[in-house]
Amino acid sequence: MTVTPGLGTPLPASPELLRSVFRRHAAGVAVITATGARGPVGFTATSLTSVSAEPPVVSFGIGTGGSSWPAISEAGHVGVHVLGEHQRELAATFARSGADRFGAPTRWRKGPEGVPVLDDVLAWLVCRVVARVPAGDHRIVLAEVVLGDHSGAGSPLLYHQGRFNGLRD
């Protein structure tokens, strides 16, 4: 291992190194939803990325050990919801293992293509899943945008240092 002066002591690659580095990376917070054989599923994601404008395609990562994976692995369509800073508790609910994610106080409705659409978000998309790419213990899901709405009011919710935060100027 090469030591570079002024850069600290480098560590070998490990899951903890990756987690520690990404705790320092502020990321937008989204909730991904789908309908499975046993009803609606969803999870909080900080891996949402715009992939292509023509055609409009997004991606997100999902752990194959997560409770939402079985439904996402078979879903033809998913919902993508960009959360506002007023939705810290909603983000925490969809991130919490074993939570009743679609019970009160979560407000949602059955949307286009049968996808659960959350109320009061900054923006939402319904997307057609076009690929699920293996990536270690995760899958990268590529999804083409079918329709959506960007008219929600407020500022985005961010995830940084293990906490949900609002955007500051």
UniProtKB/TrEMBL annotation:
This protein's UniProt keywords: Oxidoreductase
SMART domains associated with the record: Flavin_Reduct
Residue stretches making up the Flavin reductase like domain: 22-166
Matching Pfam families: Flavin_Reduct (PF01613)
The organism's place on the tree of life at top rank: Bacteria
BP-aspect Gene Ontology terms: pyrimidine nucleobase catabolic process
Molecular functions per Gene Ontology: FMN binding; riboflavin reductase (NADPH) activity
InterPro entries (alphabetical): Flavin_Rdtase-like_dom, NADH-dep_flavin_reductase, Split_barrel_FMN-bd
PANTHER family: FLAVIN REDUCTASE (PTHR30466), FMN REDUCTASE (NADH) RUTF (PTHR30466:SF1)
Identification of the protein by name: Flavin reductase
The organism of origin for this protein: Streptomyces populi
